[in-house]
Amino acid sequence: MASILPTGVRNMVKGLDANRYATKKTVAQGMLDIALLTSNASQLKYVLQVGQKHEFYTLLVVLISISIVLQLIVGLLFVVIGGLDLNDQEDQPSALILNDIIVIFIFVISVLNIVISAFGIEYSNSPLILERLKFINTEYLRKLNTTTF
């Protein structure tokens, strides 16, 4: 059977380095983790700005905080697993266990963020924008009533 790939490319494909693949995978997962961490930080900021006026304030603060802590742990585990040599027989069991732990944490983080978006920020009965508009209108009416013509 004829091969489409030139000999040099065929040899390169056969010699894929597991460490290089794992490193690229870890970097890509880390970037996604940073994006989610940024999103959670923004959500937490919003909920804290609205405060107790948000109907799910306590629930969202707890869920977002747990999500952020788990993401930080996953980030640390990425650093640890990135330092392991997958070609070394002694490092392989540790790498497999760490990888399983990371997968479990990522699953929990995903479920948490689904719940966070279900109790979402934009579906609150008193979003921050409406609160600010109410404050501005109240101040305007108060000044209007105190001003005599």
UniProtKB/TrEMBL annotation:
Q: Name one GO cellular component term.
A: membrane
List where the protein spans the membrane. Answer: 56-81, 101-124
Taken from the record, one Pfam family name reads Ninjurin
Q: Which GO terms describe its biological process?
A: cell adhesion; tissue regeneration
Q: Which residues form a coiled coil?
A: none
Keyword Transmembrane helix (UniProt) = yes
Subcellular location(s): the record lists: Membrane
UniProt cross-references to PANTHER family, sorted A to Z: NINJURIN C, ISOFORM D, NINJURIN-RELATED
**Similarity comment:** Belongs to the ninjurin family.
The name this protein carries in UniProt is Ninjurin-2
Its lineage reads: Eukaryota, Metazoa, Ecdysozoa, Arthropoda, Hexapoda
